[in-house]
């Protein structure tokens, strides 16, 4: 069985001390699964944006090198901050996955990509494109793995 991914429940059961001290956490079961990768992991980059996706798109244009982009979109359900084109670019650039605390669009296109995507749901309206004069900030480029 070597080389098979460890199930989330098994990881939690085997590491109660990491859960107690906050080093190991699991996503709340509010995220929908998109993309062809059901399981993904890697070092994370964390962004905070609100109904604007300029910074998200810029990061996904970089080489992913197996990283996971975590986007705190404030839980907004009023528009999508991620669509099919940036997800396709992320796949091509070697990102392992994207987690969005907000909505995505172009679900069929995203589901065809060999990348893992988690989001609260889908919404047909696109995000604003104001860029840096909006709320977009880089929270962390630390080598934390998810």
TrEMBL record:
<feature type="binding site">
    <location>
        <begin position="83"/>
        <end position="86"/>
    </location>
    <ligand>
        <name>substrate</name>
    </ligand>
</feature>
<comment type="function">
    <text>Catalyzes the aldol cleavage of 4-hydroxy-4-methyl-2-oxoglutarate (HMG) into 2 molecules of pyruvate. Also contains a secondary oxaloacetate (OAA) decarboxylase activity due to the common pyruvate enolate transition state formed following C-C bond cleavage in the retro-aldol and decarboxylation reactions.</text>
</comment>
<keyword id="KW-0479">Metal-binding</keyword>
<keyword id="KW-0456">Lyase</keyword>
<feature type="binding site">
    <location>
        <position position="106"/>
    </location>
    <ligand>
        <name>Mg(2+)</name>
    </ligand>
</feature>
<dbReference type="GO" id="GO:0046872">
    <property type="term" value="F:metal ion binding"/>
</dbReference>
<dbReference type="GO" id="GO:0008948">
    <property type="term" value="F:oxaloacetate decarboxylase activity"/>
</dbReference>
<feature type="binding site">
    <location>
        <position position="105"/>
    </location>
    <ligand>
        <name>substrate</name>
    </ligand>
</feature>
<dbReference type="InterPro" id="IPR036704">
    <property type="entry name" value="RraA/RraA-like_sf"/>
</dbReference>
<protein>
    <recommendedName>
        <fullName>4-hydroxy-4-methyl-2-oxoglutarate aldolase</fullName>
        <ecNumber>4.1.1.112</ecNumber>
        <ecNumber>4.1.3.17</ecNumber>
    </recommendedName>
</protein>
<comment type="similarity">
    <text>Belongs to the class II aldolase/RraA-like family.</text>
</comment>
<comment type="subunit">
    <text>Homotrimer.</text>
</comment>
<dbReference type="GO" id="GO:0008428">
    <property type="term" value="F:ribonuclease inhibitor activity"/>
</dbReference>
<dbReference type="InterPro" id="IPR010203">
    <property type="entry name" value="RraA"/>
</dbReference>
<dbReference type="GO" id="GO:0051252">
    <property type="term" value="P:regulation of RNA metabolic process"/>
</dbReference>
<dbReference type="Pfam" id="PF03737">
    <property type="entry name" value="RraA-like"/>
</dbReference>
<keyword id="KW-0460">Magnesium</keyword>
<dbReference type="GO" id="GO:0047443">
    <property type="term" value="F:4-hydroxy-4-methyl-2-oxoglutarate aldolase activity"/>
</dbReference>
<dbReference type="InterPro" id="IPR005493">
    <property type="entry name" value="RraA/RraA-like"/>
</dbReference>
